[in-house]
TrEMBL record:
<dbReference type="Pfam" id="PF02627">
    <property type="entry name" value="CMD"/>
</dbReference>
<dbReference type="InterPro" id="IPR003779">
    <property type="entry name" value="CMD-like"/>
</dbReference>
<dbReference type="GO" id="GO:0051920">
    <property type="term" value="F:peroxiredoxin activity"/>
</dbReference>
<keyword id="KW-0472">Membrane</keyword>
<feature type="domain" description="Carboxymuconolactone decarboxylase-like">
    <location>
        <begin position="50"/>
        <end position="132"/>
    </location>
</feature>
<keyword id="KW-0812">Transmembrane</keyword>
<protein>
    <submittedName>
        <fullName>Carboxymuconolactone decarboxylase</fullName>
    </submittedName>
</protein>
<feature type="transmembrane region" description="Helical">
    <location>
        <begin position="157"/>
        <end position="176"/>
    </location>
</feature>
<keyword id="KW-1133">Transmembrane helix</keyword>
<dbReference type="InterPro" id="IPR029032">
    <property type="entry name" value="AhpD-like"/>
</dbReference>
Length: 186
């Protein structure tokens, strides 16, 4: 992962400015996490635009909790996106989630090199690379994915890659710092 010096362009919303609109925007997450101390820098930044945050979270929650794509493959794809987009925030967050989903340190290291040991993992990494490079998955990669994933799973994979690519662009552009760097500051 290439570390970047982030220039914070959009600051997390200060706690004293959290209001009903912010609470409504975050209504899809558990109530005990809807506070500046527990949401993390990303959501604390996104809630500066509550309507956008609410819409984004509805889509993102589908990808995280209702997707037909197995959790392990989702995390493999998200990590490859984070690596390709040089998004340290997304990388750190999803390394933890990937380990919880069954990825090993060895598999995660392979993600950075674009290497995998099994056919499906290789196809997922290729799908990310192809979408990043050409905005389209090649016939060969689609066929390889089709041997393991049904149509809905492949659709969820494409939208997962796109969603986390867009999120990485926002994180990098807004200058969202990894949570560990600012928890001590709060």
């Amino acid at each position: 992962m290439i570390e970047r010096k982030l220039s914070v362009r959009v600051q997390p919303l200060p706690a004293d400015q959290w209001d009903e609109a912010v609470d409504h925007a975050l209504s899809s997450i558990p109530a005990d996490r809807r506070c500046p101390e527990k949401t993390g820098n990303l959501l604390a930044t996104l809630v500066r635009h509550p309507k956008l945050t609410r819409a984004f979270l509805r889509f993102n929650n589908h990808l995280l909790y209702s997707s037909t794509l197995p959790e392990r493959l989702r995390e493999l794809a998200v990590l490859r996106v984070a690596h390709r987009r040089h998004c340290e925030y997304e990388w750190r967050h999803h390394v933890r989630m990937g380990l919880e989903a069954g990825l090993t340190d060895e598999v995660i290291a392979g993600v950075q090199r674009g290497e995998a040991t099994d056919e499906l993992d290789r196809a997922v990494l290729r799908a990310v690379d192809e979408l990043e490079d050409t905005s389209e998955i090649s016939d060969a990669t689609w066929t390889a994915l089709s041997e393991h994933l049904d149509e809905r799973q492949r659709m969820d994979l494409v939208f997962t890659i796109g969603c986390y690519g867009a999120l990485a662009m926002a994180i990098n552009t807004f200058g969202v710092k990894p949570d560990s760097e600012t928890l001590a500051e709060r």
